[in-house]
Amino acid sequence: MRYGFKNAEEVKETSLKYNLHSWSVQGKLNPAVVEKAEGIYYYTADGKKMADMSSQLVNLNVGYGNKDIIDAIKEQAEKLAYISPAYAIDCRSKLAEMVVKAAPKNMGKVFFTLGGADANENAIKIAKLVTGRYKIFSRYRAYHGSSFGAGNLTGEPRRYTLEPGIPGFVKFTDPYLYHAPFPFESEEQATEYYLGQLRDQIIYENPDAVAAIVMESVTGSNGIIIPPKGYLQGVRKICDEFGIMMVCDEVMAGWGRTGEYFACENWGIEPDMITFAKGVTCGYAPLGGVIVSKKIAEFFDTHKLDCGLTYSAHPLGCAAGVACLNFYEKEHIMDKVKERGKQLGALLEDIKAKHKSVGDVRYIGLFSCVELTKDKATHEPLVPFGKDPEGIMGKIVGMLKAKGFNTYSHEACIFVCPPLIITEEELAENMAILDEVLTEVDKMV
Ligand SMILES: Cc1ncc(COP(=O)(O)O)c(C=O)c1O
């Protein structure tokens, strides 16, 4: 083994002794030791083959072992591993051009970061610089990162440890139709209701103070909440009415996850900014960014862009990004996601019809989840909001992992977001495992 370790057990023990692991009580951890990976599978040291049905943290879109990206990083590391963001270098210029060209037509330039949270931090800053206003609207059922600004944009319980939060950060309610306060007759009616509430809230908060509305185009971690018909277009209209910047967080939903480069394209809207990370390099190197409209880009022709990071537009990240975006094109990944997405949707509908523990399934492209319920009639979630005192969701994820299906859960949702390269057979085989485990879950509710 490398680094002088005698065996996998020693790797784990050393990790538990010295690594602080994210979002966990450290004393309860038992991390799997991973030795190798290829395609949609990774292999643990105890010989288990795991299908990665969450693409790790919904970032490993091209799966493991992508030779194009690996070679690009190697080549860049040998040529020029680092040079400050002030310099123009080939992979930096190329990736910026590719990102802007992949984005909606109104987009003009990109500022590169290392990941999603700092992309959102910089979007907030840019919105404040451009508008001269300070209030930022975002939604309750949202995750935008764990750093201070992004963590305050986040609406769900991962925000609480940062409170009292940033003055002027205002939360509003998501169009989460499965848990709507009353049944709507149509998606259009739901849209009208939620947009009406948002518009009123902006007026009560003083529209002249509101710099931006930040929202995930399709909500990810908080349960694949797909906007009802006309909703995103309606938010765009409200932003235009009051001179507010519309920022779409595409960190999870972007780069092909929904079958389009950016999820907002599914509704034909042009945001003022798009934040992204994850699928731009698929985890082969850290990279994120903020794409800004041509109008915002022009603003900074004559005003100072007060943003900067030592590793902004890092050469290894940019080289990985160019190779990754070329791979999406070369392999027609957007078409493949649309095709596989149809299969996934049909399998999920079967699962919903069959299992009493499944309240709802939501899917777009290869971005999907199964929401578990105690009662199909009342929609009561299997675990209450923000709590899982008995660790039920953890147990269900454990049952899936024991059968070789890797994923994670949040609230009462189990995510199914496999690498975008998954084949028809691989998807069918692994959804059969989910079906088996849900039969066990049915007995628990
Ligand atoms: C929608 C969204 N925004 C922002 C982030 C934060 O990204 P990062 O973990 O790269 O900081 C995430 C991470 O999962 C996300 O899903």
UniProtKB/TrEMBL annotation:
Q: Which UniProt keywords apply?
A: Aminotransferase, Pyridoxal phosphate, Transferase
Q: Entry's SUPFAM superfamilies?
A: PLP-dependent transferases
Instruction: Tell me which Pfam families the record gives.
Output: Aminotran_3 (PF00202)
InterPro entries per record: Aminotrans_3, PyrdxlP-dep_Trfase, PyrdxlP-dep_Trfase_major, PyrdxlP-dep_Trfase_small
Read off the Gene3D superfamilies from this record: Aspartate Aminotransferase, domain 1 (3.90.1150.10), Type I PLP-dependent aspartate aminotransferase-like (Major domain) (3.40.640.10)
| Sample GO molecular function, one term | transaminase activity
Instruction: Return the GO cellular component terms, semicolon-separated.
Output: cytosol
Q: Which family does it belong to?
A: Belongs to the class-III pyridoxal-phosphate-dependent aminotransferase family.
Return the NCBIfam families for the record: PRK06062.1
Protein name from the UniProt record: Aminotransferase, class III
Q: Which species expresses this protein natively? A: [Eubacterium] siraeum DSM 15702
Phylogenetic lineage? Bacteria, Bacillati, Bacillota, Clostridia, Eubacteriales
